[in-house]
Specification:
about 425 residues, 4-stranded parallel beta sheet, alpha/beta, globular, 7 strands
């Protein structure tokens, strides 16, 4: 229902799923949807059911052509965003299962993880910590996948990154520093090929930099953040809506946010050059300073036993909280000027919004979804228990869990699968 009207294997279609804890299950649902969509197209075109060989070839073709990203970054969840559901160890294991399944089935155009600094920044980290923690998490996934016996060039192209662009000067060079560190490490430490050395990243303008006071000014901040992302050659960009500080975005505010990108890319002449800041003294100087700071942070993480050891000590979480408190203190005292918020306030005061447009499901939509779920449970009541037992056995026997999930989602709901995995994979418990 969600993807009706979309051709999920069209060259110009790419689907980004910003999910983490339940990502493996929902990804399996998505892959099945793409396969079913193409099998349905075969029936429509040929007026018959495909043979087993034709169905197998269709599945193979779909997996080779489907494009998109699933976030699935469990490390930043523990460090910054707090939407973990399974134990970190189990989540890492299933992330490896997904990537291994991708390798075996030739899934080359879908990123198995979006290693995310954005949520680390939104939780309060400064740009240096965002970049250092995110790259360190990326190298942790590399080491985990290598330990499973995967080859670096088989999985590195399926890794992507996600950064926030705020107002601080360091954000101007975030992408170029990330690409330099990643490329050098991939080449010198892991012997990776040229394709694996290329860091691909999505960038989003900072939601944290948006303010409820004088919300019209937020578009100015977003425009500047989008401009530096464009100049830094981000692979893809999300521009925030100006009213996100007070409500869910409206159709009007989303169109304005998209217009920021369109004007930069279609009208702004300097953006037509591939690298307009190349050779600038401040860009080169910032690049060196930020890289040095990131490498220094790597040493601090290493001294605490690497990323996982530092997480057990609460290092990343503590540092993010300290930096968040520092930012809020500077904002409160006015040392960090924010126009219309703590300086150059509107003498007329901020207009009070009588009505806020909220994007919420109706009671009818809610009940409709509950009914569909109940019908699904009823239709598969006989086969679901055996499938759930098979799934639990796969975890206990250390088999590829994602391979079983590809079958399980056809007869088991997300809730049923999650409950079963809790029993054998463990629920998340924060290290206090």
């Amino acid at each position: 229902m969600l993807y009706s009207g979309f051709d999920l294997t069209a060259p110009n279609t790419s689907v980004s799923m910003t999910i983490n804890g339940p990502a493996p299950t929902i990804l399996a649902m998505f892959m099945n949807t793409a396969i079913d969509q193409n099998l349905a197209k075969f029936r429509e075109d040929n007026g018959r059911e495909p043979t087993e060989d034709e169905a197998a070839k269709t599945r193979e073709w779909v997996l080779e052509n489907v494009r998109g990203t699933v976030q699935a970054d469990i490390l930043k969840e523990d460090q910054g965003q707090n939407t973990c559901i399974f134990s970190t160890e189990f989540s890492l294991k299933v992330m490896g299962d997904i990537q291994e399944w991708f390798v075996h089935h030739g899934v080359r155009n879908f990123y198995s993880v979006s290693i995310s600094g954005y949520h680390i920044a939104e939780a309060g980290a400064n740009p240096l910590s965002q970049l250092a923690f995110t790259l360190a998490n990326g190298f942790t996934y590399v080491e985990a996948y290598l330990a499973r016996g995967m080859h670096i060039d088989d999985f590195a192209p399926n890794l992507s990154f996600f950064f926030s662009n705020g107002m601080d000067p360091e954000y101007t060079v975030l992408g170029r520093v990330a690409r330099r560190i990643w490329a050098v490490a991939m080449r010198e430490r892991y012997g990776a090929n040229e394709r694996s050395q290329k860091l691909k990243y999505h960038c989003q303008t900072s939601g944290r930099s948006l303010h409820a006071q004088e919300i019209a000014f937020n578009d100015i901040r977003t425009t500047l953040q989008a401009l530096i992302a464009t100049y830094d050659n981000a692979n893809s960009l999300h521009t925030n809506a100006y009213d996100e500080a007070i409500t869910t975005p409206t159709e009007e505010s989303v169109r304005r946010a998209m217009a920021i990108q369109l004007v930069i890319n279609r009208e702004w002449g300097l953006a037509k050059n591939e690298n307009p800041n190349q050779g600038s003294f401040i860009i080169e100087e910032l690049t060196e300073l930020v890289e040095e700071a990131v490498l220094k942070e790597f040493e601090a993480i290493s001294e605490r036993g690497g990323v996982l050891g530092a997480m057990e000590l609460g290092y990343q979480r503590g540092k993010i909280q300290e930096e968040s408190l520092h930012y809020e203190h500077l904002k409160h005292t006015g040392e960090y000027p924010i126009i219309g918020v703590n300086t150059f306030r509107n003498p007329e005061g901020d207009p009070v919004h009588d009505v806020l447009e909220l994007a919420r499901s109706t009671e009818e939509e809610k009940q409709g979804q509950l009914k569909r779920l109940a019908d699904f449970h009823q239709r598969h009541a006989k086969e679901a228990p055996a499938m759930l037992e098979r799934l639990k056995h796969a975890v206990i026997a250390n088999e590829n869990v994602f391979a079983v999930l590809m079958d399980a989602v056809r007869c088991c709901s997300l809730g049923q699968i999650t409950t079963a995995l809790f029993e054998v994979g463990g629920q998340y418990r924060r290290s206090m």
